Protein backbone atom coordinates (compact mmCIF):
# COMPACT_ATOMS: atom_id res chain seq x y z
CA UNK A 1 0.00 0.00 0.00
CA UNK A 2 1.52 3.38 -0.98
CA UNK A 3 2.52 5.69 1.89
CA UNK A 4 -0.08 8.29 0.82
CA UNK A 5 -2.88 5.71 1.06
CA UNK A 6 -1.69 4.63 4.53
CA UNK A 7 -1.76 8.27 5.72
CA UNK A 8 -5.22 8.65 4.23
CA UNK A 9 -6.49 5.52 6.02
CA UNK A 10 -4.98 6.57 9.36
CA UNK A 11 -6.59 10.01 9.12
CA UNK A 12 -9.99 8.43 8.39
CA UNK A 13 -9.67 6.03 11.33
CA UNK A 14 -8.72 8.89 13.66
CA UNK A 15 -11.72 10.89 12.46
CA UNK A 16 -14.12 7.97 12.89
CA UNK A 17 -12.80 7.14 16.37
CA UNK A 18 -13.22 10.78 17.39
CA UNK A 19 -16.91 10.38 16.64
CA UNK A 20 -17.60 14.05 16.06
CA UNK A 21 -16.21 16.96 14.15
CA UNK A 22 -13.18 18.30 15.98
CA UNK A 23 -13.20 21.87 17.23
CA UNK A 24 -10.60 23.45 15.03
CA UNK A 25 -9.68 27.00 14.17
CA UNK A 26 -7.28 27.83 11.38
CA UNK A 27 -5.63 31.15 10.70
CA UNK A 28 -2.44 32.46 9.09
CA UNK A 29 -0.32 31.73 12.17
CA UNK A 30 -1.61 28.16 12.56
CA UNK A 31 -1.23 27.46 8.83
CA UNK A 32 2.35 28.78 8.67
CA UNK A 33 4.78 26.36 7.06
CA UNK A 34 7.56 25.27 9.42
CA UNK A 35 8.96 22.31 7.49
CA UNK A 36 9.41 21.17 3.93
CA UNK A 37 9.83 17.65 2.59
CA UNK A 38 10.64 17.52 -1.11
CA UNK A 39 8.57 20.63 -1.88
CA UNK A 40 5.64 19.64 0.36
CA UNK A 41 5.09 21.96 3.33
CA UNK A 42 3.79 21.20 6.81
CA UNK A 43 2.67 23.31 9.77
CA UNK A 44 3.92 22.89 13.35
CA UNK A 45 1.48 19.99 13.90
CA UNK A 46 2.60 18.12 10.77
CA UNK A 47 -0.53 18.99 8.81
CA UNK A 48 -0.02 19.71 5.10
CA UNK A 49 0.02 23.41 4.34
CA UNK A 50 0.94 25.85 1.61
CA UNK A 51 3.88 28.09 0.88
CA UNK A 52 3.41 31.33 -1.03
CA UNK A 53 6.49 33.43 -1.70
CA UNK A 54 6.49 37.23 -1.49
CA UNK A 55 6.33 37.46 -5.31
CA UNK A 56 3.13 35.34 -5.31
CA UNK A 57 4.75 32.07 -6.42
CA UNK A 58 2.85 29.14 -4.90
CA UNK A 59 4.30 25.75 -4.08
CA UNK A 60 3.51 22.94 -6.53
CA UNK A 61 0.96 21.25 -4.26
CA UNK A 62 -1.11 24.41 -3.84
CA UNK A 63 -1.11 24.91 -7.60
CA UNK A 64 -2.03 21.26 -8.16
CA UNK A 65 -4.82 21.65 -5.60
CA UNK A 66 -6.20 24.61 -7.54
CA UNK A 67 -6.22 22.51 -10.71
CA UNK A 68 -7.77 19.45 -9.05
CA UNK A 69 -10.38 21.48 -7.18
CA UNK A 70 -11.44 23.19 -10.38
CA UNK A 71 -11.67 19.91 -12.28
CA UNK A 72 -13.59 17.93 -9.65
CA UNK A 73 -15.08 20.11 -6.90
CA UNK A 74 -16.05 23.52 -8.25
CA UNK A 75 -19.18 22.21 -9.96
CA UNK A 76 -20.85 22.10 -6.55
CA UNK A 77 -18.59 24.21 -4.31
CA UNK A 78 -18.18 27.10 -6.73
CA UNK A 79 -15.15 28.68 -8.31
CA UNK A 80 -12.23 29.05 -5.89
CA UNK A 81 -14.22 27.34 -3.14
CA UNK A 82 -16.51 30.35 -2.81
CA UNK A 83 -19.66 28.22 -2.58
CA UNK A 84 -22.82 27.95 -4.66
CA UNK A 85 -26.49 27.17 -4.30
CA UNK A 86 -25.51 23.47 -4.34
CA UNK A 87 -22.77 23.36 -1.68
CA UNK A 88 -21.04 25.49 0.95
CA UNK A 89 -18.02 27.72 0.51
CA UNK A 90 -15.10 25.48 1.37
CA UNK A 91 -12.90 28.56 1.62
CA UNK A 92 -14.98 29.25 4.76
CA UNK A 93 -15.48 25.67 5.93
CA UNK A 94 -11.77 24.99 6.21
CA UNK A 95 -11.44 27.75 8.79
CA UNK A 96 -13.03 25.36 11.30
CA UNK A 97 -12.57 21.91 9.72
CA UNK A 98 -9.61 19.77 10.75
CA UNK A 99 -7.47 17.94 8.23
CA UNK A 100 -8.80 14.55 9.43
CA UNK A 101 -12.41 15.75 9.10
CA UNK A 102 -11.68 17.05 5.60
CA UNK A 103 -10.23 13.68 4.54
CA UNK A 104 -13.10 11.77 6.11
CA UNK A 105 -15.79 13.96 4.55
CA UNK A 106 -14.30 13.80 1.06
CA UNK A 107 -13.70 10.03 1.23
CA UNK A 108 -16.95 8.98 2.91
CA UNK A 109 -19.31 11.79 1.93
CA UNK A 110 -21.84 13.40 4.19
CA UNK A 111 -25.61 13.78 4.37
CA UNK A 112 -27.18 16.65 6.30
CA UNK A 113 -30.85 17.12 7.03
CA UNK A 114 -31.68 20.43 8.61
CA UNK A 115 -34.80 22.56 8.61
CA UNK A 116 -36.33 20.40 5.89
CA UNK A 117 -33.37 20.94 3.60
CA UNK A 118 -31.29 17.98 2.51
CA UNK A 119 -27.69 18.37 1.39
CA UNK A 120 -25.51 15.52 0.24
CA UNK A 121 -21.77 15.42 -0.27
CA UNK A 122 -21.04 12.31 -2.33
CA UNK A 123 -18.18 10.04 -1.34
CA UNK A 124 -15.03 10.46 -3.45
CA UNK A 125 -12.96 7.72 -1.81
CA UNK A 126 -13.03 5.69 -5.04
CA UNK A 127 -12.19 8.56 -7.36
CA UNK A 128 -8.44 8.56 -8.00
CA UNK A 129 -8.66 12.05 -9.50
CA UNK A 130 -9.66 13.21 -6.03
CA UNK A 131 -8.07 10.93 -3.44
CA UNK A 132 -4.65 10.84 -5.12
CA UNK A 133 -4.61 14.63 -4.73
CA UNK A 134 -6.43 15.15 -1.42
CA UNK A 135 -3.48 16.91 0.22
CA UNK A 136 -3.17 19.19 -2.80
CA UNK A 137 -6.85 20.11 -2.65
CA UNK A 138 -6.62 20.59 1.10
CA UNK A 139 -3.61 22.95 0.97
CA UNK A 140 -5.20 24.97 -1.83
CA UNK A 141 -8.43 25.40 0.15
CA UNK A 142 -6.46 26.10 3.33
CA UNK A 143 -4.59 28.92 1.58
CA UNK A 144 -7.94 30.32 0.41
CA UNK A 145 -9.49 29.90 3.89
CA UNK A 146 -6.81 31.86 5.75
CA UNK A 147 -6.77 34.58 3.10
CA UNK A 148 -3.28 34.06 1.73
CA UNK A 149 -4.39 33.09 -1.78
CA UNK A 150 -6.68 35.31 -3.84
CA UNK A 151 -9.31 34.00 -6.19
CA UNK A 152 -8.25 32.80 -9.62
CA UNK A 153 -5.44 30.74 -11.08
CA UNK A 154 -2.12 31.32 -9.33
CA UNK A 155 0.08 33.29 -11.73
CA UNK A 156 3.35 31.63 -10.68
CA UNK A 157 4.14 28.17 -9.37
CA UNK A 158 7.13 26.14 -8.31
CA UNK A 159 8.18 23.25 -10.54
CA UNK A 160 6.67 19.84 -9.85
CA UNK A 161 8.93 18.00 -7.38
CA UNK A 162 10.18 14.49 -8.15
CA UNK A 163 8.33 13.27 -5.02
CA UNK A 164 5.03 14.54 -6.47
CA UNK A 165 5.69 12.70 -9.73
CA UNK A 166 6.48 9.48 -7.86
CA UNK A 167 3.40 9.73 -5.63
CA UNK A 168 1.16 10.44 -8.62
CA UNK A 169 2.53 7.44 -10.55
CA UNK A 170 2.14 5.19 -7.51
CA UNK A 171 -1.40 6.32 -6.70
CA UNK A 172 -2.75 6.49 -10.25
CA UNK A 173 -1.27 3.08 -11.06
CA UNK A 174 0.86 4.27 -13.97
From TrEMBL:
The keyword Oxidoreductase does not apply. PROSITE patterns: CYTC. InterPro entries: C-typ_cyt_methanol_metab-rel (IPR022411), Cyt_c-like_dom (IPR009056), Cyt_c-like_dom_sf (IPR036909). GO terms for molecular function: electron transfer activity; heme binding; metal ion binding. Gene3D superfamilies: Cytochrome c-like domain. Residues 1-25 form the signal peptide. Residues 150-174 are annotated as: Disordered. Keywords: Heme, Iron, Metal-binding, Signal. Residues 155-168 have a biased composition (Basic and acidic residues). Residues 60-145 form the Cytochrome c domain. This is C-type cytochrome, methanol metabolism-related. It comes from Phyllobacterium salinisoli.
